[in-house]
Amino acid sequence: MSENRKMIQEINSKIFADIIGETSNIPVVIDFWAPWCGPCKQLTPVLEQLAREHEGKIKIVKLNVDENPGLAEKYGIRGIPTVKIWKAGEEVHSSAGAYPKDYWDEIMAKILQ
After folding, report:
1. I want to staple 85 with a disulfide (CB 3.0 to 4.6 A). Which of 69, 90, 93, 112 is the partner?
2. Is 16 a known active-site residue?
């Protein structure tokens, strides 16, 4: 599983703007999470699988809301996990909760059109 984790980068507020800037090349999926969050732990393997399946087509990153409360507040994170997707510099999707893989397959199909 350690190989899978490398596919999902942990980011912080210092590089957040740079990551959003990369959305002109490929969509960026940002998982707002915390280490104590049970549903966040359930979502992680789903995101890892998406990262493998769509390698080179999307970028998935994780942002710890406990360590980056300013960004969580700025983007209106009220519950975790919350996943937001940016494409071409614009937020194109947001969902709160640990949704199953088939939900994310549908979202990725729309995002990657």
Report:
1. 93
2. no
pLDDT of residue 93: 96
Per-residue b/e over 36-49, b at no fewer than 16 CB within 10 Å? Answer: ebeebeebbebbbe
113 residues of the chain, pLDDT tens digit each? 344 446 899 999 888 888 888 777 899 999 999 999 999 999 999 999 999 999 999 999 999 999 999 999 999 999 999 999 999 889 999 999 999 999 999 999 999 98
In angstroms, the CA 44 to CA 61 distance is 11
The reply to whether 40 belongs to the active site is yes
Strands 28-33 and 82-87, sheet pairing: antiparallel
Residue among 8, 40, 71, 85 flagged as catalytic: 40
- Enter the CATH code of domain 2-107: 3.40.30.10
Q: So where are the chain's domains? A: 2-107
- For tokens 């959305």, the residue is 23
Both structure tokens of 111: 């995002």
